[in-house]
TrEMBL record, chain A:
Residues 55-292 form the Elp3/MiaA/NifB-like radical SAM core domain. InterPro entries: Elp3/MiaA/NifB-like_rSAM, RaSEA. It comes from Natrinema altunense (strain JCM 12890 / CGMCC 1.3731 / AJ2). This is Elongator protein 3/MiaB/NifB. NCBIfam families: archaeosine biosynthesis radical SAM protein RaSEA. One of its GO terms (molecular function) is iron-sulfur cluster binding.
TrEMBL record, chain B:
Residues 515-582 form the PUA domain. InterPro entries: Archaeosine_synthase_1 (IPR053418), ArchSynthase1/Queuine_TRR (IPR050076), DUF5591 (IPR040777), PUA (IPR002478), PUA-like_sf (IPR015947), PUA_sf (IPR036974), TGT-like_sf (IPR036511), TGT_C2 (IPR029402). It comes from the Archaea. SUPFAM superfamilies: Pre-PUA domain, PUA domain-like, tRNA-guanine transglycosylase, Uracil-DNA glycosylase-like. CDD domains: PUA_archaeosine_TGT (cd21149). Keywords: tRNA processing. One of its GO terms (molecular function) is RNA binding. GO terms for cellular component: cytoplasm. Pathway: tRNA modification; archaeosine-tRNA biosynthesis. It holds the Pfam family DUF5591. This is tRNA-guanine transglycosylase.
Length: 366, 583
């Protein structure tokens, strides 16, 4: 693929401005992390094309996102969790994997069927995770059912996916598409690729799927961001509905994870939030989008982080836990009628916000 | 170019305006029904909206909410297209620039709420950047409680959005509170939405009530602006929320912004009922002019007396008694809170004749400090052969003694118990024994000269009226030159001067600072509209006497706009013409 790299793509005055601002914001953070420890690891359950599976989620510390070092996405604080400046050696990465296996060993009855590896960057970018490390990690988890690895679309190609599928592992590449709307991805999120790049990555995954034959499946899991900065609640909802529909229509993309934005420290979103210029989305918006897109030909899930807090997606505090529970139920069963079973007086407020919020009066509520 | 908005009435930074749509709307007002949003460019590309004059179209925009980094605002800035229908540009308080639209919406409006200083900074930054004859829209923030202050600060357009949203949240809004609906056993309102049993009153009804309460409050605000009495209202209304009071006080510190917009006279009362009244532009300006422009021209002793409730003072019972004792043998200066000191020549001058204070005889330390400060400055500028303080104990004497000590003066006190008791009046009279009376002529000449000082600048009375005669009876003194040509007339309602054409010429020829309005080649009759104004002096204030000159006319009249507003407005009456001649 002749995809532009982040380095050459850093052009255009809007992007320059976003990057300049984000570099300044991130520079306020003073911390560094041990390259021999993963950023985070946890056990959970996930809905996959083969049903609900136990999962081990690993956030590898790989030296962080290259794009974030240039400035990066307006809502993303993960770069701050990466190792200062440098890259992480093969040995250190494998130490991190050992820590994760030990965690699983201690806390789960049996090995998780699904392994999900995120890096706050691109697992398939060889400047971040070398081919040697990638293959070693594929070997480590060869006995599992399914792998998810995170990558920008540029780095998705059939040979890299084959490193996993050759072990019979069903393999998904998780792509932080954020939105199918290029304008929103560029101007609100400050992410540099186009929807066409995502489509190309899906085509690569589809080809890898074909190459793998009956032994394994390969596909794309699209990650969407509900309500980047500068959008109103209604615009954010519309953007998600159309994005889910467009992703589901792309061959090779079988799952969409639509996640409400939360306010992370050392981000532009945090600066906006601090100055009363941003509110995370309503959980009603999440429920609404999931209901509206329940008929699309893809698994659509959502995992609201920090629900019910001011910095996370929230309704009125009274109903946050209940709606969150309904969303989690929907994730596993894909049945939108679950949302008919939750109601709250604050739905009227949400409807009023949807109707009346404009970008020149937002946010209408806290 | 503002085609669809016109300011009709001004009261400080607040205005009653007209949104000139096919169905005109009087502002400050809610614009929900007429606002058409062409949409945000953050979420999509936008067609140039068709627009029409039945609605106010918000042009495609990229709104920058509070906290948007400066470089992002600069690089994503949008220029409003040039359209020929009523339009609004969305601007941020940090990067606002004129866009040629009729109105401007503030994008970071939520960040300006709840903090007095932040609100004032945002309003002043935007208002000073956009043309004065354009409307300012604050969307999503107005409530019955805050809208008077917002209008007072200079916001023209609002919507019912915040009131409606808060209603859905179960907050019942009144001009004084945001009650929790669940706490209300009865609904303290009689609007249509509230005409139903309490237990049937829903949050949707609450939203309806809130918007209705907001509309009522806006009607009061419009009435208050027309009456020139919004400040008096806000001093009370703002007390219902601390940040609103803070905003009012912060705005008082924006002297340049507020003074430029405050008229020099009003046909309205000033209520001096709070400690904030002392900081009003009208009060501060009077004190400033009395101590920097006015000069005492009498050579007689000074008698300081307490003010009276009746205005002008000379018509009050007490002052008549003082006068009987003094008999034009002294220069009379009244001490008063919150005005400071009022020399007898300026007793009719706004706001000396127009304020009404709360009479208890209790002086706050702020009042004492203010009046002693003004009296001190006054006495530093004006020398008297003798100073007699005919003042009672409460407050007044304390103030005089402070100044006496600070300036090392020697003051004679003549009040025994009460200023109008026989003993005190006898003391006053005898303190002046041997002093000569000044003539009616001297009195009247000094009065019109003092008013000229006050209105036009230090020394203006002598520059303009060195050689005059006066006719007619005080307070309607006519000023004439030695050849009996009338130059000016004293206006008793405001204590100002209105000039004749001859007077205007003399003014221009004198060294006194002039207030000139330069117009195009036409002969104005009745009024001069803003488009006809080529330029205007920046120190012109609403109510000022102005000389109007153009290639074809010479005229004199009264300013209806402040100077910069005349020069930059494209609509509205700039000044009313009193006399004109073709040239």
């Amino acid at each position: 693929m002749s995809k532009p790299t982040p380095d050459v793509y850093e052009q255009g005055k809007g992007m320059d401005a976003h990057n300049q601002a984000m570099r300044e914001i991130r520079s306020r953070k003073e911390a560094s992390y041990d390259p021999h420890e993963p950023t985070r690891v946890w056990l959970d359950e996930d809905n996959t094309p083969d049903g609900v599976k136990s999962s081990l989620t690993i956030i590898l510390n790989t030296g962080g996102c290259r794009w974030a070092r240039a400035g990066g996405c307006t809502m993303c604080g993960y770069v701050a969790e990466s190792v200062d400046g440098g890259s992480v050696s093969h040995e250190a990465l494998m130490d991190q994997i050992d820590v994760c296996l030990a965690h699983e060993d201690e806390n789960a009855d049996e090995p998780a069927a699904l392994i999900k590896i995120y890096t706050s960057g691109s697992f398939l970018d060889e400047r971040e995770v070398s081919a040697e490390s990638r293959r070693a990690i594929a070997d480590t988890f060869a006995d599992r059912d399914r792998m998810v690895v995170e990558s920008l679309p540029d780095f998705v190609d059939r040979e890299k996916i084959a490193d996993f599928t050759q072990h019979g592992l069903d393999t998904d590449v998780a792509i932080g598409l954020e939105t199918a709307t290029d304008r929103v991805r560029h101007d609100c999120v400050n992410k540099y690729f186009d929807f066409a790049d995502f489509e190309a990555a899906c085509a690569e995954a589809a080809a890898a799927d074909e190459d793998a034959g009956a032994d394994a499946e390969a596909g794309i899991k699209a990650y969407l961001l509900m309500k980047p900065p500068f959008l109103t609640e209604a615009e954010a909802v519309d953007d998600m509905i159309s994005s889910i529909e467009r992703c589901a229509a792309v061959e090779g993309c079988h799952t969409v994870s639509m996640n409400p934005c939360n306010v992370q420290r050392y981000t532009m979103v945090d600066d906006l939030y601090f100055e009363d210029g941003y509110r995370p989305p309503w959980l009603w918006s999440v429920a609404h989008v999931l209901t509206e897109t329940a008929d699309t030909d893809a698994i659509v899930v959502s995992d609201p982080v920090g629900h019910g807090s001011d910095r996370g997606p929230h309704n009125c505090q009274e109903c946050d836990d209940l709606v969150q529970k309904a969303i989690k139920d929907f994730d596993l069963r894909q049945d939108p009628t679950v949302f008919e079973q939750v109601s709250c007086e604050c739905e009227l407020t949400w409807e009023t916000v949807i109707e009346r919020e404009r970008s020149f009066n937002q946010p209408l509520t806290r | 170019m503002t085609d669809y908005f016109e300011v009709h009435e001004r009261d400080g930074a607040a205005r009653v305006g007209e949104l000139r749509l096919s169905s005109p709307l009087t502002t400050p007002a809610l614009v929900d029904d007429v606002l058409e949003d062409a949409g945000s460019l953050w979420s999509g590309d936008r067609e140039r909206p068709a627009g029409d004059d039945s609605q106010l179209t918000v042009l495609p925009h990229r709104a920058f909410p509070g906290g948007t980094p400066a470089e992002v605002q600069e690089s994503f800035a949008v220029d409003a297209p040039d359209v020929d229908y009523p339009s609004v540009a969305v601007v941020s308080s940090e990067t606002v620039a004129p866009q040629g639209t009729d109105a401007y919406a503030l994008s970071d409006v939520q960040s300006a709420m709840g903090h007095g200083a932040a609100l004032v900074e945002a309003v002043v930054d935007v208002r000073e950047a956009i043309p004065t004859d354009t409307a300012l829209l604050f969307s999503g923030v107005a409530t019955p409680r805050n809208v008077a202050l917002l209008a007072y600060a200079g916001v023209d357009l609002f919507d019912g959005t915040a009131a409606a949203v808060k209603g859905t949240e179960g907050r019942y809004l009144t001009t004084d509170e945001a009650y929790f609906l669940e706490d209300l056993d009865e609904l303290p309102c009689s609007c249509p939405a509230c005409q139903q049993p309490r237990e049937e009153f829903t949050r949707a009804d609450c939203a309806e009530h809130n918007v209705s309460a907001l509309e009522s409050e806006l009607a009061i605000v419009r009435r208050r602006i027309r009456d020139g009495r919004l400040r008096d209202y806000v001093e009370g209304q703002a007390r219902h929320d601390q940040w609103l009071t803070a905003a009012m006080r912060e705005l008082d510190d924006q002297w340049g912004y507020l003074e430029e917009r405050t008229p020099i006279l009003r046909d309205a009362r000033i209520d001096a009922a709070t400690a904030d009244t002392i900081r009003r532009v009208e009060i501060q300006r009077f004190a400033d002019r009395v101590t920097t422009r006015y000069r005492n021209r009498f050579r007689n002793p000074l008698v300081l007396v307490p003010c009276s409730a009746a205005k002008p003072y000379s018509e009050s019972q007490s002052h008549r008694q003082f006068h009987d004792a003094i008999q034009w043998r002294a220069h009379l200066v009244s001490m008063t809170s919150p005005i400071g000191v009022v020399p007898q020549e300026l007793e009719t001058t706004y706001p000396a004749q127009h304020y009404d204070t709360v009479v208890t005889g209790r002086w706050s330390e702020d009042e004492k400090q203010f009046v002693s400060e003004v009296l001190g400055r006054y006495l530093e500028r004006n020398e008297y052969p003798e100073i007699i303080a005919h003042v009672p104990d409460e407050g007044y004497r304390d103030i005089v003694e402070r100044v006496e000590e600070r300036l090392a003066l020697d003051v004679t006190y003549t009040v025994a118990d009460h200023p109008t008791d026989d003993e005190s009046l006898a003391n006053l009279s005898s303190a002046l024994s041997g002093e000569l009376k000044y003539s009616k002529r001297e009195r009247e000449h000094n009065t019109v000269r003092a008013i000229a000082d006050y209105l036009l600048g230090d020394g203006a009375g002598d520059d303009l009226f060195a050689n005059i005669q006066t006719t007619s009876r005080y307070p309607k003194i006519q000023v004439r030159d030695p050849d009996d040509t009338q130059l000016a007339t004293m206006v008793p309602q405001y204590g100002t001067l209105s000039f004749t054409l001859a007077g205007a010429r003399r003014w221009l020829e004198s060294d006194a600072p002039t207030k000139r309005v330069e117009i195009d080649g036409f002969v104005p009759h009745g009024s001069v509209l803003a488009p006809g104004v080529v330029d205007a002096d920046e120190d012109i204030r609403v109510g000022d006497e102005v000389v109007v000159e153009g290639p074809k006319a010479f005229a004199v009249g009264r300013a209806e706009m402040f100077g910069r507003e005349m020069a930059e407005s494209t609509r509205g009456i700039a000044c009313e013409i009193r006399h004109v001649e073709e040239t």
